[in-house]
Amino acid sequence: MRILLHASAFNSLTQRLAVELAYQGHQISVSLDLGGGPRGDTELREAVHRHSPELIVAPMLTSRIPEDVWSRHTCLIVHPGPPGDRGPSALDWALAEGRRSWGVTVLQAVAEMDAGPVWAAEPFDIPEHAEAGGIAKSDLYRNELADAASAAVQRAVERFASHRFVPRPADRRGAARPYFRQELRAIDWTGEGTDVVARKLRTADSSPGVLDTLGGRAYYLYGGQPEDELRGAPGTLLATRDGAVCRATVDGAVWLTALRPRREQDGPPTAKAPAATVLATTGLLRGVPEISAALRPHHKRQTWSTIRYHEHGSAGLLRFSFPGGAMSTSDCRRLLVAYRYARSRPTRVLVLGAHRDVFSHGIHLGAIEAAPDPARESWANINAMDDLVEAILTTRDKLTVAALGGNAAAGGLMLALAADEVWVRAGAVLNPHYRLMGLHGSEFWTYSLPRRVGQEQARRLTTEALPIGPERALDLGLVDRVLDCTPEGVADHVADLAQGLAVDPRLPRRLAAKRGALRRAEGRRPLAWYRSEELALMHRNFYGPDDSYHALRRAFLHKSRPDATPQRLHRIPA
User: Fold this and answer.
1) What does the alpha-carbon distance between residue 17 and residue 149 come to, in Å, rounded to a whole number?
2) In the list 322, 389, 439, 551, which could disulfide-bond 434, CB 3.0-4.6 Å?
3) How far is Cα 246 from Cα 333, in angstroms, rounded to an integer?
4) Residue 463 pLDDT greater than 60, yes or no
5) Are 234 and 249 in contact (CB under 8 A)?
6) CATH classification code of 189-263+270-279
7) Average of pLDDT values for 437-442?
8) In this structure, what DSSP letter does residue 97 have?
9) Rounded CA gap, 513 and 507, in Å?
10) Is the pLDDT of residue 409 over 70?
11) CA dist 86 → 94, 156, 482 (Å)
């Protein structure tokens, strides 16, 4: 069928639905709601005229579809709540109330929001994650909720195509719940315990954050990982680690991973950045110690740690999880140190990732924007990424695996391609391109991407700048295995698969063949050549007269809306 996806943003869920439906053979087009009101309505009407869709699907739309559209076309709204739930903050209310199960409903657009006939519904469980203060909203949205939304949308599309299904009336017994305002998120540092504070923070992650004050200035706070050892006067800053800051509660402490200064009236827009970076020039961190986390903790702790290593039989698992998948210069350097340690261990297989949610999105645009010299920080960040990728590419005595429990994009996906094998969970979204940020890209992609998919396909993937799903990535040879497991099951599933590789009697022959291939590749063209060529173009992106990268970075961080739906979204290829 011809299906038009109409969404407030081409975010991870919209991308996932687009690539999945296109892979199934549907003709998929996308239109973006450009802020609601007459402008957004006009954009939708033009898209309907341009594509003549048989069905319109709206994933998580934040504004109303105009009556002249929904009255003439079947428009299915994806609502992040079970049947009967209504209102704009469904997921926020579910997490704030401590729900253990929730759901997604696909309902038909009518005059009243969230009140149309139901075409499909899919329940899902909300992981407890007691050791982490509850699951973060953004993690849940990209994983359990996205899995449920995908299943519900596909069922609704099949029912619509059958021309036999009659949707059931919506449950209208309950009133629509209001927007989850900042007043409901407010933290009382002198009266609320760690569990309450952590839940409030993680319910607002990664949007909109919790509005609070530090040193007399207003910030939006992000994070919420409890800390089990540090203590201090409630509200005080106790320590920093890996860009995060630890703040005391009445009975413990929590880690704040990022901050965003509240925009002053008539002032420039602000961007989210690592908490320690934002506070570096305020004086609030004077005397606050920087503490490190153990790479291999002796016991299960509640604390902020982005990198962990452990062994499962003859397989080493280097697990890392950076907020939003962004990797700063210091993140890359710490991961390189951890990788060198893991490489020195007497294991046969080394796995990177193997964590639920985002694998990596490459360099940290927020940290770069917050730096005194963004161009200089960009250059440091990309060189640190390249150092890490080169270490993986030149590992000769182990089979390396990149295990993607969730989405990956740009340099983060190219980081994964440095491994011998790439595994990705079903439902993840991959974006193998840099163009939308005005960058040529590095991370040795001109070496690793063509060797997997060929020169022509590498050119198409990087220039078309469109997402692809795991199934198409497997068809292309971009990845080697699609993991059919739940988000919660990624770590254990990957560990078992890695151990299976480690005891495979064919592994010594594979490692010998790997060493031979590396020697032959170096003989044809050294890795240093690829790095030099890529970095020469990246230097021009950072320091050259064309400042498109800097403008696009700011627009991305400030969530600027485009003037129109980009033409590349007019047709999503299968």
Assistant:
1) 8
2) 439
3) 22
4) yes
5) yes
6) 3.10.25.10
7) 98
8) T
9) 10
10) yes
11) 12, 19, 35
Do 87 and 93 touch, CB atoms closer than 8 A? yes
Q: In the chain, which segments carry CATH 3.10.25.10?
A: 189-263+270-279
Q: Which tokens go with 34?
A: 């450009």
Distances (CA, A) of 167 to 103, 121, 163, 175, 330: 18, 11, 11, 21, 53
Q: Above 80 in pLDDT, residue 449?
A: yes
d(CA 461, CA 431): 8
The C-alpha atoms of residue 499 and residue 438 are separated, in whole angstroms, by: 41
Average pLDDT value for the chain: 95
Q: Is 0.85 topped by the overall pTM? A: yes
| Three-class SS of 458-487 | HHHHHHHCCCECHHHHHHHCCCCEEECCCH
- Contacts for 528 with CB less than 8 Å, ≥ 6 apart: none
Three-state DSSP state, 245 = strand
- For residues 60 and 141, the model is more confident at 141
Grouping H, G, I as helix, E, B as strand and the rest as coil, residue 269 is: coil
How do the residues of the chain divide into helix, strand and coil, expressed in percent and rounded to 5? 40, 20, 40
CATH superfamily label, 307-490+505-557: 2-enoyl-CoA Hydratase; Chain A, domain 1 (3.90.226.10)
| Cα distance between residue 198 and residue 222, in whole Å | 10
pLDDT of the residue at 1: 97
Helix axes 527-543, 374-393, angle to 10 degrees: 160
Q: Nearest 10 degrees: CA dihedral of 429, 430, 435, 439? A: 120
Q: Where in the chain is the domain with CATH 3.40.50.170?
A: 2-169
The pLDDT of residue 574 is: 87
Specify whether the CB–CB gap between 105 and 83 falls below 8 A: yes
Task: State residue 133's pLDDT score.
Answer: 59
Pairing of strands 399-405, 421-425: parallel
